[in-house]
Each structure stands twice: as structure tokens, then as C-alpha cells.
Amino acid sequence: MSEQQHSSAEPTETQVGPVAVADRPATAPAEPKRRITSLEVLCVLLIAALVGQSWLATWLDVPAIQTGSTIFVAVCVQALPFLVLGVLISGAIAAFVPASALNRLLPKRQSMAVPVAGVAGVALPTCECAAVPVARRLMQQGVPTSVALAFLLAAPAVNPIVLVATNVAFPNNPGMVLARLVGSLGTAIVMGWLWARFGKAEWIIERALRRMPDLDGRSRWRMFFETSRADLVDAGGFLVIGGLTAAVLNVAIPREWVNTLGEQIILGVIVMAALAVLLALCSEADAFVAASISGMPLLPKLVFLVVGPAIDVKLFALQAGTFGKSFAVRFGPATFVVATVCAVLSGVVFLGGVG
């Protein structure tokens, strides 16, 4: 009897063994390392400012620092309303305006369609960041590449928001608005014609030309909010950088250097064109930055305003990621040269040369 009990117990242990192993708790996955967010960094900075406020007050009580902070706040406060309005309109254009609507209005010949697309930038305002995906969308809808690129260059520079902002920034120089309009529009048209003549489709990556499905109502609203939010964050950051740069230029750079650039127009034009590429400001805000650089003649400032919306480091990166590096390394430098020449010619005509 005991042997039978012993023999019957053996399979029981065999059955229980795997169950016992299976019932063991699995090893808990390692918790991901907590990353420091920008909010925590801000809190630390605020605490440090409160603790060292007496030292900060002494350090900030310097005429140069006070002048720079005043210039920075003035640039940001003046430009912010135009920036927000431009971002909202660009988000609405990207989400709700079908690219086929522009395609139906274009002439069949590219030589005539390019100027029409450039002028359409007046009615369809977008910032530089939004113009790149809109241009890609136009290509995917069958619009000729040269026409889409003309719209890409014209929309951020000749739209009413930018022109009104330019007028506000230069209240005593109304010719600056017309000079910027003609210079930017000329840049868009010339580059469109050059691409129609010399551009090759293989320079643009295939996915940029692939036809995309239309969005439904819910997706359009989602695109509107996401595009507006992303553009506002990006453009706001560039506005802050531009405001800081304007403050530094007005305080740190000796006045003699600015006067030298003012006396040597060619050098001033080259420097301001390069500065427009490096700063990568939003077109709704760059006029206030240019106007804040006192001592600089109007012609170099005009070059700054025409070159910036056409090509800068931000746009070069966006174009390389959207259309490919082969496109960007050809289109970017050519745009820089054409924009500089068009700005100088426009300034000579409407600003009397040096202004």
C-alpha cells in the first residue's frame, strides 16, 4: 500500500514541477532611465535666478546689457503678431487648400506658368517651413517642377503679411516694401525659368514626386493644428535667435565697423547676404531684425530681406530632406546668387542705389 502511494506520488511531483517553474514570477524589465526635460531645466534656471538675483541685478545694471535687452524685447514684441498670423495662415493653406486648385489656374506653357505661380504667392501666404511641403504637394498633383519651385520661393517673401511687416519695420522708407516685392518676385521667376531650362527630374528624389492620397476632414484639421504648432515653435525659436543676434550686433560690434560697412556698399551687401543665410529668420520677422541694425544703408538691408526667405541654412536642410541632396546642392547656391543680384538691381531702381 505504501509502495502504491509512493508510485502514485511520483507522477504528481512530475506534474507539479513544471507548474511550479511556470508560476515563478518573470524577471521585471529594467525601467527606462528618466530623461531631463526642458521644463525641469527651466525650473532649475528660475531657482538659480532667484537665489542669485542680487548678483544678476549687479551684472545686468550695465548700459550695454540694458540697451541689448531693450532691442531684443522690441524686436520680438513687434514681430510676434505677424509671426503668429503667418503660421496660422500657412497651416490653413497646407491643410485645406487643394494643390489642384492652383494647377487649374496655371497656363499650359511653363514660361508663362512660372510668373503666374510667383504672383500666386501674394494670395497664398506661407512661411518658409510650410512652403516646402506645399511645393512638394504641388509636384505630386502634377504641377511642373519649375512652377512649384517658383511658388516655393515667392510665397514666403511676397505675401501681404511679410509686406505689411516690412512697412511697419521701415515706416520712413516706403520704397523698401516695393523693392522687396520686386526683388523677391524676380528671384522666384528667374529661378523657375532656370529650372525649366536646366533642371533635371533625376535630381529630385522619387518619393518627393510620388502622388499622395487626399486627406479627409478629420485629417485636415489634425494637419492644420500640427502644422501650425510645429511652425510656431520652430519660427519662434528662430525669432528669439534673431532678436538676440540683433541685440549683439548693436551692442558688441563697434560702431566704426558698421560705419565701414556703410561706406563700402559691396562689402555690406556680401556680409548681409551671408548673415541672412546663417541667421535663418522667419520672413514674417526678418524685417524688424534688419531695421534694428542701425548705421547700415538700405541696400544691404534689402539684400538681407530678399536672400533670407529664398535660401538659408534652415531651408537648405528642409530642401535636402524633402527633395534630396542632389537638388539642394544645386538649387541652394544658384538661389543665393540670383537673390543677391535681384535685390541689388531692385534696390538701385527703387531705393536710389544706397538708400
TrEMBL record:
<dbReference type="InterPro" id="IPR052923">
    <property type="entry name" value="UPF0718"/>
</dbReference>
<feature type="transmembrane region" description="Helical">
    <location>
        <begin position="176"/>
        <end position="196"/>
    </location>
</feature>
<keyword id="KW-0812">Transmembrane</keyword>
<feature type="transmembrane region" description="Helical">
    <location>
        <begin position="41"/>
        <end position="60"/>
    </location>
</feature>
<keyword id="KW-1133">Transmembrane helix</keyword>
<feature type="transmembrane region" description="Helical">
    <location>
        <begin position="331"/>
        <end position="354"/>
    </location>
</feature>
<keyword id="KW-1003">Cell membrane</keyword>
<dbReference type="Pfam" id="PF03773">
    <property type="entry name" value="ArsP_1"/>
</dbReference>
<feature type="region of interest" description="Disordered">
    <location>
        <begin position="1"/>
        <end position="28"/>
    </location>
</feature>
<feature type="transmembrane region" description="Helical">
    <location>
        <begin position="72"/>
        <end position="102"/>
    </location>
</feature>
<feature type="transmembrane region" description="Helical">
    <location>
        <begin position="146"/>
        <end position="170"/>
    </location>
</feature>
<dbReference type="InterPro" id="IPR005524">
    <property type="entry name" value="DUF318"/>
</dbReference>
<feature type="transmembrane region" description="Helical">
    <location>
        <begin position="232"/>
        <end position="253"/>
    </location>
</feature>
<comment type="similarity">
    <text>Belongs to the UPF0718 family.</text>
</comment>
<keyword id="KW-0472">Membrane</keyword>
<dbReference type="GO" id="GO:0005886">
    <property type="term" value="C:plasma membrane"/>
</dbReference>
<protein>
    <recommendedName>
        <fullName>Permease</fullName>
    </recommendedName>
</protein>
<feature type="transmembrane region" description="Helical">
    <location>
        <begin position="289"/>
        <end position="311"/>
    </location>
</feature>
<feature type="transmembrane region" description="Helical">
    <location>
        <begin position="265"/>
        <end position="282"/>
    </location>
</feature>
<feature type="compositionally biased region" description="Polar residues">
    <location>
        <begin position="1"/>
        <end position="15"/>
    </location>
</feature>
